[in-house]
Amino acid sequence: MPARRIALLLPGQGSQHVGMGRDLASARREAAEVFERANDVLGVDLRRICWEGPEAELTRTENAQPAILVHSYAAWSCLPEELRRAVSVGAGHSLGEFSAYLMAGALGFDDALRLVRRRGELMARAGTVRPGTMAALIGLEDADVRQVCADVSGGTVVPANYNAPGQVVISGDVRAVEAACERALEMGAKRAIPLNVSGAFHSPLMVDARDGLAAALGEIEVRDPEFPVVANSVASPVTGADRARELLIEQLTSPVRWVECVESMVGTRPDGWLELGPGKVLMGLMRRIDRSANVRAVGDPGDLDGIQGFLEEGHDA
């Protein structure tokens, strides 16, 4: 394969679905071993939760986060070695940032798995201590969303995910988010969609989870990544272990600046993009941010057909 550059996209919570990774593990020994190892590491039958559900159990934050990381890593393990060596930059959406550091060799699999399980537990607990929610606002400019949040009194509400042009997720106290949705519609938003989440992720309401995550990160080895990982909270590439550790903690209470993350990666001029794991959410967002991108999702065995040659195709696969 000619020397090419690949950018990785790693999905976050919300991409999970019952059955995720089952077909891949049935078809590929490498993927099956990843799911088996996950069960051993966690002492939980995560494989059953992923493949059989029920959906309510899979959707629980402490299960969804390791499930998505495991599926993403299973897909990574199935890629040809030439493709893995061709990765020049990566980024993940929220939980996916941990997956990106795993692919980059900054985190070991066992440590990454225990870490995201703990992160999910901490985030769920923070959502119990201070209940909150999230909503997607469609059809407003970023500045308008910030104004909507500023206009709300009587609670906390902030932009949490800048996902794509005209699509921003807000997060905060339940009543404040509801008021912001009403205000957004008054300002011309096309839709305001409440999200089924267990807390106000990427907002100040997650502050109770920070110390626990910092402690968990302090107990494991974090290495310099083998390729730069563009961090959610600053939308710039990270190449050092200490900075990675710092920004993974900061991410809990900071917005996911996904559009800027992708734009930063576009600036490195990759020849192709791969989304690894369940669903095609980031592939869809990518096409709204940069329609010229050669992007492909890999989560099922059929997605691996022709994967070694997709960079030579010159079009979206």
Tell me about this structure.
By secondary structure, the protein is α/β, with parallel strands linked by helices. It folds into 2 domains: 230 residues, 3-Layer(aba) Sandwich (Malonyl-Coenzyme A Acyl Carrier Protein, domain 2), CATH 3.40.366.10; 67 residues, Alpha-Beta Plaits (2-Layer Sandwich). It is built from 14 helices and 10 strands. The strands form 3 sheets. The protein has a 4-stranded parallel sheet. Strands 4-5-3-6 form a 4-stranded antiparallel sheet.
CATH topology of the largest domain: Malonyl-Coenzyme A Acyl Carrier Protein, domain 2
Low-confidence stretches: none
Radius of gyration: 19 Å
- The N- and C-terminal alpha carbons lie at a distance of 18 Å
Coarse morphology: globular
Strand residues, percent? 15-25%
The structural domain count equals 2
| Structural class by secondary-structure content | alpha/beta
Largest sheet: 4 strands, parallel
Mean pLDDT: 95
Question: What's the β-strand tally?
Answer: 10
Quick synopsis:
This protein is an alpha/beta fold and 317 residues long.
List keywords for this structure.
single chain, 2 domains, 317 residues, four-stranded parallel sheet, alpha/beta, Alpha-Beta Plaits, four-stranded antiparallel sheet, Malonyl-Coenzyme A Acyl Carrier Protein, domain 2
Fold topology:
Layout: E1 6-10, H1 22-27, H2 29-42, H3 46-52, H4 55-59, H5 61-78, H6 81-86, E2 87-92, H7 95-103, H8 109-129, E3 132-138, H9 142-151, E4 157-164, E5 167-173, H10 174-186, E6 191-195, H11 210-218, E7 229-230, E8 237-238, H12 241-250, H13 258-266, E9 272-276, H14 281-289, E10 295-298
Parallel strand pairs: 1-2, 1-9, 9-10
Antiparallel strand pairs: 3-5, 3-6, 4-5, 7-8
